[in-house]
Structure prediction request, 586 residues.
Amino acid sequence: MTTYSAPVEEMMFLYNHLKDNKDYNEIQKFKEINSDLVKDILDQAAKINQEIVHPLAKVGDETPCVYENGVVRSPPGYKQAYQQFIKDGWTSLSCDPKYGGQGMPKTVSTFFEEMLSSSSLSFKLYSELSIGAYHCILHHADTKIKNKFLPKIVEGKWSGTMCLTESQCGTDLGLIKTKAEKQEDGSFLLTGQKIFITSGDHDLTENIIHLVLAKIPGAPPGTKGISLFLVPKFNVNDDGNIGTRNGVKTLSIESKMGIKGSPTCVLNFDNAKGYLIGKENKGLSSMFTMMNLERIIVGIQGLGIAETAYQNSLAYAKERKQGKANNTNTEKADEIIKHADIRRSLLSMKSIIEGERSLSFWLSQQIDVSLNHSDENIRKNANDLVSLMTPVVKSFFTDMGSEITNEAIQVFGGYGYTKDQGIEQLFRDNRITPIYEGTNSVQAIDLVFRKVLKEKILNNFLKLIQKEISEHNNNQQLKKFSNIINDKIDIINKFSNWLEKRNKEKRDDVSASCNDFLKILGYLSLAYSWFKTTKVSLSLKDQNKNFYNEKINTANYYFDKILPRINAHYESATSGSDIIMNAKFG
Ligand SMILES: Cc1cc2nc3c(=O)[nH]c(=O)nc-3n(C[C@H](O)[C@H](O)[C@H](O)COP(=O)(O)OP(=O)(O)OC[C@H]3O[C@@H](n4cnc5c(N)ncnc54)[C@H](O)[C@@H]3O)c2cc1C
Prediction:
């Protein structure tokens, strides 16, 4: 079994030294949240994750969810853990106090999301979709629905789902067939089948609130005719109590490669009573409130799982003795951490993970600003940055999760491939993250075609990086980092110009290079984060030499050994798409 120790010191370093966003610091309602409070929350979060949630990872993998007689049962121990989880108020951490939440900013709740992902992704998923449903209802439902459903969701007594996928419709939501017919009382009856629904049914909560995409007869074709509905598993009476069973039935659960403790359900809707959320035919844009938040959280899942993979690889590499690095004693082998290739592997993991955590902390500040700042223009600017970075964090972090969990198996050798150590489970559990919430390729397409070429929101981000660098022009210790970042910005500018041009002349060239562009932006964003970390570490070095020197060394590794990947992506992408599109495939 793996071990996990929550990186609270790392998180507090970010909270104390990289919360330098003026707009964030102006948000009135977060002014009373101080460092002591955050440390206290993170210590408590570490405790429940290390002691209660993490042991469930192996249990869920070995004793997956069961579907029997129309009922889904969670793995042993999940129910008791969930009761503790909601008793301690973890489902309410970031929710509005108006509905019983604790009103914590994203800057704090994201750390908790990471810890949960590191501990057990399967267990996390039971409450994760509830938070997404909470936001969607909060932003788009009428007051009556909010008052009726939100307090129970916030309390964790009811959970949420997101029902988009159907057998003929995965990426292409325009193909949805589920039908919603309007009733005289203003409610709707939904009929159709949804597949792959995470936490679609289980025994942890009293009720399950499904958010379902469906089409009203006569609606425009494609995505323009999709509406969003709230469909409870059990109808809810006007007094808020649970009533009769609604027409939603679980037909089966999937047998999967990973996250086996999380039920992935086929749900049948047979005249199930539902309530319209938002306007008719505008369901997709309402659902995007949920999907965009979820996409960032899925990125955090990749980061969290990578952290567990790294921690265990590091511990193993310090103990396992094989071969000789420096010693010449033929009787004695060295710890594998002394071998250059293992060190390279560990440093690659570490430099990517810490860069990602720092980037996600920066992004959390932008999300908090976009939702809470009093100035509309400032909210809009922050929202553009969030919009640009959403596909990057979703795809880059989860792809790196695959890379890092794969590297971890390699560090463990044969013991990584066999089951005892729990390392191969990390790879399997992570493997869904590049697929769900919109595949990573589709995220890359969204980034390039919509955000870069159509909305042109890349430049603001590049300017932000350049501003940060130029403010430290006189700092000789940062010169190397500034120069490298400036070179990489040149590349990304050349790449975007190339995309603009090719988009007018040969769209396939652009389509074939979206993944490369997303990777480049991902690596550059981490470089921006490492630049700020290095700046702070240089200034604080004398206070805690080990911690800050290690940061500076890791930054150097990232700039020397990881960032050159940008050049390879650029070269490959701009060679065009002829060879791809002309291939005959036999
Ligand atoms: C464990 C699990 C949990 C899930 N949870 C949920 C959930 O809670 N709610 C929910 O609604 N769904 C859920 N899903 C469904 C998931 O979101 C979809 O599987 C995913 O969006 C991809 O759809 P698809 O599987 O139909 O693949 P397809 O859409 O058929 O895609 C197949 C391949 O084609 C590529 N592709 C598709 N379109 C394009 C394009 N235009 N350009 C380039 N490439 C393209 C994709 O990137 C992919 O590589 C879950 C799935 C799994 C396996």
Q: What stands out?
A: DSSP finds 20 helices and eleven strands in the chain. Residues 162-165, 170-171, 196-198, 256, 264, 432, 435-436, 438-439, 441-442, 445 surround flavin-adenine dinucleotide (CB under 6 Å).
